[in-house]
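For concreteness, we quote verbatim a single protein encoded this way:
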Amino acid sequence: MQESAWGWLIISYLFLAGAGSGAFLAAAACELLAPDWSKALARAGSLAAGPLVAIGTICLVFDLEAGLWQPWRQIYLVSNLSSMITWGVLILSAFIPVALLYAAAENEITFVGRAAKKYMPALAAVGSFLAVATAGYTGVLIAVVNGVPFWNTPAMPVLFMASAMSTGLAVAMIGAAIIDINTIRTLSNFALGHVIFLAVEATVLMLLIFMSLTRSTEAAASANMLISGALSPYFWGLVVVLGILIPFILSIVEYYEYGEMPKYLVVAADLLVLVGGMSLRAVIIFSGTPPQII
């Protein structure tokens, strides 16, 4: 297996930015569609969104190395509008303050949050647009790398968007359980979201692998690395079984049981979604040949 030029810093960015943007969308959807009985989830999702994306952005900057050893060179990250990196930094720089302000308003944190409360619909609209852009960008970032055929496909942003929605919902649901454990019964309504997003994620992942087997020699080599090669134990064990299949089954049970499923299984399903989301990004990155940036 060839060593990937990208490592755990970029993987952490892809995961944290996806989960954070997904958590914001979950919070905004709860506030819009069910503000009365989903308050804990809306609060938790809003509180997690900004910090997660901010930490992920730091990982992205430091992955470029200049951000660590020559911080003054970070200005070049926003000076080239023809670069996907530049657009990504601009999107992230816009999303983070909006997400933090929305969290302050949702949770009435300090006078700033109380003052911003009346602007929550506008903050939710702008933040949701930026959250979709942030989640989509995590897939676009690697899809535009022409030197890695396995990554270079329109399916990649779709896969990462579906994963961002499922991991973001998991973050919000775990946070809601921490804020108020009695909300577990209410969270059963949102288990349907996991069923939908995990089904989409599994479908796109399957199509990505099957298409890669016939696209090119390099793409086929990456796909084979996942399904039967060096990364196959991690792919089948962490991504498919623990990250998709088991949470999918538990979410179906949770939805139809409506609050009767043991609380530890509810939280376990969400934790497994997070394990699967992180593992998905890791195997995708490590299965690619070293990017040839031109």
Q: What stands out?
A: The mean pLDDT is 85.
